[in-house]
Fold this sequence. Notes:
Blueprint: H1 6-15, H2 19-22, E1 27-34, H3 41-60, E2 83-90, H4 95-107, E3 113-116, H5 120-133, E4 137-139, E5 155-157, H6 162-180, E6 187-192, H7 195-210, E7 215-221, H8 229-238, E8 242-246, H9 249-262, E9 268-271, H10 279-285, E10 293-296, H11 307-320, H12 326-345, H13 350-358, E11 362-363, E12 373-374, E13 388-393, E14 396-401
Parallel strand pairs: 1-2, 1-3, 3-4, 4-5, 6-7, 6-8, 8-9, 9-10
Antiparallel strand pairs: 10-13, 11-12, 13-14
Helix pairs in contact: 3-12, 4-5, 6-7, 9-10, 12-13
Amino acid sequence: MKLFSKAGLAAILIGLGLGASAQAQQEIKVGVIYPLTGPGAAVGAELRNALELAADIINNGAKDIPELPFSAGKGLPNLKGARIKLVFADHQANPQVGATEAERLITQEKVVALVGAYNSAVTATASQIAERAGIPFLNPESSSASLTQRNFKWFFRTTPHDDLFVHNAFEFLKELEAKKGIKPGTIATFNENGLWGTETTKLQAKLAPEFKYSLVKQVIYPAKTTQLTSEVQTLKAANPSLVLQSSYTPDAILSMKTYKELGFSPDMILANNAGFTDTDFIRTLGKDAEYVITREVWALDLASRNPLIKQVNDLFNSRYKINFTGNSSRTFTGLMVMADAINRAGSTEPEAIRKALAATDIPGSQLIMPWKGVKFDASGQNTLGSGILVQIVDGKYNTVWPFNMASRDVIWPMPKWDLRK
């Protein structure tokens, strides 16, 4: 009797729909789309580091951290030790480039899934390509609420979204008044004009009156701008006590420099993450970054509540000489969640991975995030994520809200520029 060759047997198995699960997969390609050049290159480099650390742990282990999934190493056990291979794409913070790169990763690189893309506007276009192709797309960081309001079947997001984050900001202000006796005063918003910034602006305009706050001015500036003088002059003329701000790294830094140059000194800047939590923000501004409060999803000082935070951060710091940020910690978590789904699927078939993602139920004890866990609803949104607020004091991010998790008290108001040491 003639036996089938390995190739012949593989063809039969694949024809029966069994090939991916029945055969050992030596390498599983996962496409990762991030801003590796252009205005987002600095944060993109950190996100790449986070992805590479996660892939290394999945493939080779982290035996000193047994509580971490895949810490035993040697790849995905349900796929006979298959290793994750990251295929990087650079979207340059350009939505059209992101869509083109998603197409390339799917059609030419033959990736089994996509992870990305930090910038909400790029995530929107890249995930549309994945949806049409029937390829799972996991988004670890983009927070535009509309991303999980599109009735997509293949899209999953692990981070909380801006509807929660903006609510958090106003809840903090109410608690600040009730528990600390600090009244925020009048509010202005200052946001970039991309998908993320414009959606945030609408949410802030809706929630301010609901929470009984006076919104005296809304200023939207061009994304990727190189000057903010006129916009900051408009803000200064409105004389708000508090500025709610959504900016990516270059414009977050530029805005702070412009505030100082023009002598604009509100009582507080309450930022919406992104550029304000990038390592380059404090590194570039030094003492001029002090006292800003920003929403976050991760803080090193929460390690007292979750030892995994310090253990994995120590590993990250030993390799890259920087700490995790809310951005990079979410990216790390995103790839770990995707690997968990592929492993549980026991297959590289897109539909099997999609079903495994939909069935995800990871407890908070296995995450480096201060969340209850990861579990997706029908829209693909993780329902167990949460936000915190941190304040920059002495060059570090300190948890200040929720108050029962705070590592230090809020400093309010910020000292005026000419009174800072």
